[in-house]
Amino acid sequence: MRWMKWIGFLAAVLLIASCLFTWVVIRSKNIAVSGVDAAAIGLGRPGYFHFFFSFFFLLFHFIPRIWAKRANLLVTALNFAWALRNYLLITACGGGECPEKLMPVYLILVASGLMLVSSFFPDISLPREPEEKR
Fold first, then answer.
1. CA-CA distance, 86 to 106, in Å (whole number)?
2. 53 Cβ partners below 8 Å, 6+ apart?
3. What local confidence, expressed as pLDDT, does residue 29 receive?
4. Do 35 and 47 meet the contact criterion of CB atoms below 8 Å apart?
5. Which range, 5-19, 30-44, 114-128, is most confident?
6. DSSP track, 66-92
7. CA 32 to CA 40: how far, in whole Å?
8. Fewer CB within a 10 Å sphere, N or C end of the chain?
9. Rounded distance, CA 88 to CA 82, Å?
10. pLDDT band at 70 (very low <50, low <70, confident <90, very high)
11. Which residues, other chains included, contact 57 with Cβ-Cβ below 8 Å and sequence gap of 6+?
């Protein structure tokens, strides 16, 4: 499954790019929220954790060791949970106002999900153990 390695790589690049664009817009208050600037709604900079997780995903994704593949499962699971948290908190309606969701907020979920799926299918060949002689 060598193609899964490249799908994971492209998903990580898509995730990083999506964090730089505007996720939601609250028209009544003239607030635009992105991954690197969500301070207007009190969430800080949630995209920086995606940058952190993407760095370790790419690092572990291209190391051909079993420990790296196992660590990558943890990194991608945390990344997907963080993306789901961001989606639920940032797109939630509050006080009768619902923010206008833009495409990058959906791309965050899709890219994080693709990274998780690509970590399920690592491109690694394990050495065969010799069979016992009878």
1. 11
2. 75, 76, 78, 79, 82
3. 85
4. yes
5. 5-19
6. HHHHHHHHHHHHHHHHHHHHHHHHHS-
7. 8
8. C
9. 10
10. very high
11. 8, 12, 72, 75, 76, 79, 115, 119
What tokens appear for 65 in the block? 């060791």
Q: Evaluate the CA torsion angle 121, 55, 86, 7 in order and state its sign.
A: negative
> Whole-angstrom Cα distance, residue 80 to residue 78?
5
pLDDT digits (tens, 9 = 90+) for 84-133: 999 998 888 887 888 899 999 999 999 999 999 999 988 777 677 777 76
CA 57 to chain centre: 9
Comparing CA positions, the residue from 9, 2, 4, 94 lying closest to residue 43 is 94
Using CA atoms, how far residue 98 sits from 24, 27, 76, 116, in Å, is: 10, 9, 29, 29
Q: Mean of the per-residue pLDDT values for the chain?
A: 89
List the structure tokens of 70: 């196992």
Mean pLDDT of 9-37: 91
DSSP states of 42-67:
T---THHHHHHHHHHHHHHHT--SHH
CA distance 115 to 134: 45
